[in-house]
Amino acid sequence: MGEKEKQGSKTVSSSDLSDYTIIKEGEAEILMHAKNEVFYNKTQVNNRDISIAVLRTFISKRKQEYETLLSRRTKAVQKVSSENASNLEAPTESNTHNEKSNGECEESEEITQEESCSISEEPVTIPEGKGRRELKPPKVLEALSASGLRALRYAREVEAIGQVVALDNDKASVEACRRNIKFNGSVACAKVESNLTDARVYMLTHPKEFDVVDLDPYGSPSAFLDSAVQSVVDGGMLMCTATDMAVLCGGNGEVCYSKYGSYPLRGKYCHEMALRILLACIESHANRYKRYIVPVLSVQMDFYVRVFVRIFTSASAMKNTPLKLSYVYQCTGCDSFHLQPFGRTVSKNNSIRYLPGFGPVVPQECTDCGKKYNMGGPIWSAPIHDQEWVTSILADVKSMKDRYPAYDRISAVLTTISEELPDVPLFLSLHNLCATLKCTSPSAVIFRSAVINAGYRISGTHVNPLGLKSDAPMDVIWDIMRCWVKNHPVKAQPPELAGSVILAKEPVLQANFARAVASLSKAQAKKIARFLPNPERHWGPKLRAGRQITSKHVSLLGPQALNGINHHEEGCDEPQAKRKKTEDPTSVS
């Protein structure tokens, strides 16, 4: 019946299809006008695919948590009822037994109280009343929907999903979204609704209503975060994208501070720092409402960063936020960087005191090269992935590879993330280390082996193919490089250079470059592709909706897009083109 209705909707709109192009992605199809009226970017297929994979895993985990909570409550009730029955059977027991049973009752009450507290941290709450009620399907909000493609894919491809609410503040976008909902048939019409409204106002007027809130703006999401963290239910998920990478990566540090409350540094790790700045910003907004975040997946892909965090409410757990934040000190002469923790805790007599972090962690001048430090942050220095979630998401993607148009890319990214060291913030670049010393570069396997042989851990990073995460301190890293240069001498350099100062010191650690067993990751050993090239040219950001495409956008969109616009305008007669221009308030003259 659904297929017939879908075919019917296509037949009805077939008279108007000459002005539109049908775009199919996954199981959803949308109608795109030849002009740039509503934003659509083919590149974001990676973003949408990975979001669907995370959403499927979230629904599965949500169900497991619900069933675990029910079983715990059932066991607690059974324990209390059995104790009550034993008390009725033996009312003349000794006082010692009564004291024991009272203690047991108090213990069970404490368990019940703990469970009631944990309910607020679970993704769903158990409704009051007798009997067990089924878990409701998750309600999803897409705050900035544009054409509605993401909302339609959620509705058509995620089996256990409930209602999907798509919002936009642009009339042309909402009309396009509603047209696409009808075009996709009965399933989409039943599950997806489109509203013309300001997403910030809508989220503020619907507190703790949505299990999943998806923010994917054109640019910075900072204006939407305060209302978004209030709209998510306890244990729900916030999916957030930021595409203003020039700001987040240090191109405009003062702008980044005004939007995200953090100052970026321009290092090789700048893209991972962008992820951690965004997470720290979301945590800051959540803390204002006695809430906190738990990141499950954080990805830097193409030209944007994307984070998936769960949001919980707990005034006590919120106090741990300073322990998850750090400042970053980056040497201006070499690649040395150090983290300054924001806060610390002291335990005394079963109580925890929260205190400011000790500092400074570095002197005025770098101990390796003698140069000054730049200071950035604060950033999120706690883990940015939940490895259990990553494993589940990757397994789901591999089991349904035919349903993900960008399977190759997202599986490669998830595989690399699954092998990252979760507790090591930021990373080093082997090529940058060698550039500082003006020496030839050792292979990644040799360098990783030296770090492992020295007793430390090391891994790659999904952000940069040349990046290396390690818990080895910087003096160990430079000792390894000094030993390498002794075997591979360099030309004499001016003594004031950072590399010359570093090499002038004798290594304390004698590096062992013998190949270690763990020098290759499992993916590398199996020769699994981890960093794939772009599938086509001009694979990147697109022009904002409503802007007129001109010849200056050829480098961004390609000549094909420009030719398509020119042909469309030549095909229309002049009066119609003028009338359309006058009637369409979103077009830019």
Automatic annotation (TrEMBL):
How is this protein annotated for GO cellular component?
nucleus
Entry keyword annotation includes Transcription regulation: no
Question: What EC number(s) does the entry state?
Answer: 2.1.1.216
Q: Which UniProt keywords apply?
A: Metal-binding, Methyltransferase, RNA-binding, S-adenosyl-L-methionine, Transferase, tRNA processing, tRNA-binding, Zinc
**InterPro entries from the xrefs?**
SAM-dependent_MTases_sf (IPR029063), Trm1 (IPR002905), tRNA_met_Trm1_C (IPR042296)
The GO terms this record gives for MF are: metal ion binding; tRNA (guanine(26)-N2)-dimethyltransferase activity; tRNA binding
Q: Where is the composition biased (Acidic residues)?
A: 104-113
Top EC class of this enzyme: transferase
Family, as annotated: Belongs to the class I-like SAM-binding methyltransferase superfamily. Trm1 family.
The record describes the protein's role as: Dimethylates a single guanine residue at position 26 of most tRNAs using S-adenosyl-L-methionine as donor of the methyl groups.
Q: What name appears for this protein in its UniProt entry?
A: tRNA (guanine(26)-N(2))-dimethyltransferase
Its taxonomic path starts at: Eukaryota, Viridiplantae, Streptophyta, Embryophyta, Tracheophyta
